[in-house]
Design a protein that fits this description.
The protein is α/β, with parallel strands linked by helices. The chain is built from 19 helices and 21 strands. It has an eight-stranded mixed sheet, sandwiched between helices. Strand 1 and strand 2 form a beta hairpin. The longest helix has 28 residues.
Amino acid sequence: MRREKFLAALLFTYIIIQAIVRAAIVVDSSALLDTQSLRSTFALGAVFDLVAGLFFIAPIALLSLLKFRRPIPIATFAFDFTIILIAVAQFLFWREFHTNFNFIAVDYLIYTHEMLGNIAQSFDVPLLLIAITVAAVAVFNLQQFFYAPFLKLPLKKIFIGAALIILLPTVGALSVQSEWRESIDANRHNVELAGNGAYEFVRAFFVNELDYRTFYATRDDDAVIRRLRSLLIVDNAAFVNDVDITRRVENFNELTAVKPNVVMITVESLNADFTGAFGGANSLTPALDRIAQKSFCFGRMYATGTRTVRGLEALTLSLPPTPGQSILRRADNGDMATLGAIFREHGYATDFLYGGYGYFDNMNAFFGANGYAIKDRTTIPDDEIFHETIWGVADEILFSQVLRSMDEHHAKGERAFEMVMTTSNHRPFKFPDGRIEMPEGTRPAAVRYTDWAIGDFLRRAESRPWFDETIFVIVADHQALAAGKTTLPVNCYHIPCMIYAPKLITAGWSDRLISQMDLPPTLLGMLGLSYESKFLGRDVFRSERAIAFISTYQMLGMIEGDTLIVLTPNKKIAAYRIDDWTTGEYTAIEPSEELITDAVAYYQGASWLYKNGRLKK
């Protein structure tokens, strides 16, 4: 029984450490959790921990069957160090995203350079590693009370033992279901807390892309496309065929002949409640608040997703989020009907400007394959880089590149569309000294610096000869956090959007519900540019219905009025009445068949169009 007692001690160690992590999260995030269901949260979590723990101890269990015993202490210490390191990573990941490991963790592991650099710039890594090592040594010494030289086994028992060691965790993994967590509580934080980090990480790795027809509620494809066409009918558009959504959109106004330049500034992680102009009680954005007074603002815009690639997808392709990965990260995503392609048809030069290395999240590959000139960290002269983090140069340096790019296009007599993606509002939240009154290292300070950088950029742009004929669009890619107490907390998707062009666009305000993917057709309408459209977004000044789309990589939501329709990967559909837009609280209701049909039409339709190449130019 020596062998079994020792392995049981290792398994018990893993389960206890995971329980400690959950307890630490409860202390750190008690205001977010439903304390009434913590007992069941911990109990179900222990079940997942048991299964994951069987995998972690399997290598040591196999070694224990053999006569080579020297590697066992080394393997045991490696086991202790690894599980404590993972536990610390889980806690830090929760503090950043208020969720368990998910596809974001998978993506970060793929981009090892950025992940390690971000950790190095955000934490005292040597001290952290020392603490983990000390904890691992302490745990290792405690485990030695259960260790004794193992008796040599006959060959038959070795084979039986090896079979059990392989079989038990496999059966456990096949038996438990991540969906069991959903029964714990309606509070999403409790659901996430009930999971096991390693289990959820592996699961996210394999379900990072989800086939819509396999996992979600469906209708007949032809019926879906017909419904989608009916939803996209407006008075200034006509379909060009009978098989998809391609249509000719005719726009004309006083700006048609002007063809203004467009600089679209997509701001990293900018919540609407960070800005006073969009309802923030304690505004972090005095510059944007001033700009908003001279802009046309959309006060109720909602981001389609929770990551930068989702925001860029919505703003470039005007699509609702298909489940799994953004199209920016998928295969065969070149030569698509993008906003940039439409501008190029009208004679514009189109650029994608990013302060970091654009290979991250496949941004350079996507924008390059769709006709944009790439201007990222590699194109910035070294002598101009006086501050950078692992994610990219300080925003003010990026904006200097935008000014140079616009100057070059103006010198050539070209109109330009600049797609700009900022990075400074991202951990480790560092920026140049002397810009703002707040010390670096926190999200509020980073927001305040990004705000300063945008204000500084527009101040510098005012002296340029192209300023009066340029429209500046300022919009967030997503919010800083998108985890709430509900499945899809609407308050965590509310983002600011303003169109600033003092000589061209009359300042104003719209409280109409608008999706992030509506911005491309709405902007083209304001510019008076006609085009052939494959967009699923709508020009909000032409459409009677107001609809928004919000999502995680699995949960797909559609909002109309105060109703939220949610499609989940188990082919289920739920409906909720939004009770409070500022807290994201809602009540389950009976779904309207019409809204269900529309939600399926948008999401299934977008997936079908992409899969069948109908979003190509």
